[in-house]
Amino acid sequence: MSSIRPLTPADEPLLLAVLRGDPHNNLFLIGNLLTLGMGEPDLEYWGCYSGDRLAGVLMRYRANWCLHDAGGADFAAMAAVLDDHPAGARVITGEYGLVSRLWEHVRNYEAYEDHCSRLAVMEALVELPGVGPARRANEDDVPGLVALYNEAGEMARDAAAVQRVLAHGRIFVSEEDGCIVAAALTNAETPELAMVGGVYTLPSRHNRGHATACMSALCHELLREGIQPCLFYDNPQAGSIYRRLGFREIGTWRLLRLRRTQSTRMDASKRESG
Which of 60, 95, 145, 200 has its CA 20 to 30 A from that of 86? Predict the structure, then answer.
């Protein structure tokens, strides 16, 4: 018989030990815990227990949800937590099979986007010929990075978001004529792994090697520090570049973008009006 409960700071050592059993798929769960800690109101963890054993973990960061199965997660109980949480649910993401099993039990949300991507890791960087220079960004680059990512659609980042990455991760940029035209960054880091993302080049500067330069410099620095780069991709052209740099696929991830079902929205409206 399984049970689920919120985890507290006293549970942190066991939580980390369980999550580190699958460090690549749990990079966000581990990275948020190490960076923000249990006292952060936007970050919560729940544990599924089979007897005294921690058998599954559910994480909420703001309205984004992720999970881990350590062999006995109660997906129905996890879904009930997500369904009823006042912070809501905007995204569920994680290893493809786990997200699928959780999604079977979610009742108060519908998915308006169902996205599949490949998880890849790098053991060693392949030094490609002709790769141009890139440098690590700093606080002076915030306006230029905001301007760059304003052109990037769903990857858009305001100044506060850029500053959070600079504080907790790293960003590398490539320039032309003194302007930032491409960047790559880390979305999450642990002492062992880093999730690379935010890879973007201005459309007018495509096919000039800018993204490759940013990726090469970023991965070089991570590996020098003993941190393994990881990333997600779904674009075949990008995948070809990443493989040339030395990445290899190790799994599949699923991301669901959610909105409340119409009946749930109507029930909420009735409660508010009543």
Answer: 95
Strands (E), the chain: 2-6, 43-50, 53-61, 64-69, 91-95, 109-122, 135-136, 171-176, 179-189, 193-201, 228-233, 247-260
The pTM for the full model equals: 0.88
**Distance of alpha carbon 223 from alpha carbon 230, whole angstroms:** 11
68-114 pLDDT tens trace? 999 999 999 999 999 999 999 999 999 999 999 999 999 999 999 99
Residue position matching structure tokens 């030990």: 17
pLDDT for 207-264, tens place per residue?
Answer: 899 999 999 999 999 999 999 999 999 988 889 989 999 999 999 999 999 999 987 6
Question: What is the rounded radius of gyration, in angstroms, for the C-alpha atoms of the chain?
Answer: 20
Phi first, then psi, for residue 100 (nearest 5°) are -65, -40
Q: CA-CA distances (angstroms) from residue 47 to 53, 78, 97, 155?
A: 10, 9, 19, 31
Spell out the domains of the chain, with CATH numbers in brackets: 2-117+254-267 (3.40.630), 124-245 (3.40.630.30)
